[in-house]
Fold this sequence. Notes:
Layout: E1 5-8, H1 16-24, E2 28-31, E3 35-39, H2 45-51, E4 58-61, H3 64-77, E5 86-89, H4 92-99, E6 105-106, H5 114-117, E7 130-136, H6 142-149, E8 153-164, H7 169-178, E9 183-185, H8 189-201, E10 210-213, H9 216-224, E11 228-231, H10 237-247
Parallel strand pairs: 1-2, 1-9, 4-5, 4-7, 5-6, 7-8, 9-10, 10-11
Antiparallel strand pairs: 3-8
Amino acid sequence: xxxxxILLTRPESSNPTLRQRLETAKFAIRELPLLRIEALDDAxxxxxxxxNIDHYSHIISTSRHASKxxxxxxxxxxxxxxxxxxxxxxxxxxxxxLEDLGATVKLPPTGHASETLLTHPELxxxxxxxxxxxxxxxxxxxxxxxxxxxxxxxQQLNLYKRSPACHDQATLKTVLSAWQPHILxxxxxxxxxxxxxxxxxxxxxxxxxxxxxxxxxxxxxxxSKGMAPIVLTAMSDDAVIEAIEMGSQPNNLSS
Length: 255
């Protein structure tokens, strides 16, 4: 018998390993992607930046999607990675694609958010140093602002764009109202906002729904809407499973 009903919300291509592990552990799983990810054309500014990536001292990837796209471009334009660059990512998942190319990737000393990456010793004094932030279009500007305040010449490299995923009411009613998930897994405040938007279309009541979230900032957002958040200790499948195990204890589950 399945222990709890878990709703995964990343694009389906991002979930196979996590889904397999959760199903092996006897959780019931459904997927409802909340955002669509579309890679931007590598013509023009993107290509120029990649060709000149050896001009930067620090390269920061803010997500798995950014790392995968950046790694693909580097593999295309650089037979081997230029030496002397400092590579950073938010967690093991976002570091993996760059490590596959041979980069030594530095992670936040604790946690997995912009705030904790900013505490890294090598990002404190940046006078005269060039910093490249690989990311999706839009999103938070904290990294750019803080690193510029520390003297860095900071450039954003937008590699993809996010847009809300569309689902018809029949799908939403089947997945939410009829199936009634116990635990929702989201990886950004933007995804959480999109969940609420879709849920409102069918009058789905999410009060007290347990939600696994990436940071205290998103946890505060969830609490403001009556959800019960569990904050990930790391951006990894192991950490997601640990959070789900915590949230699926009998005293935490609704019927």
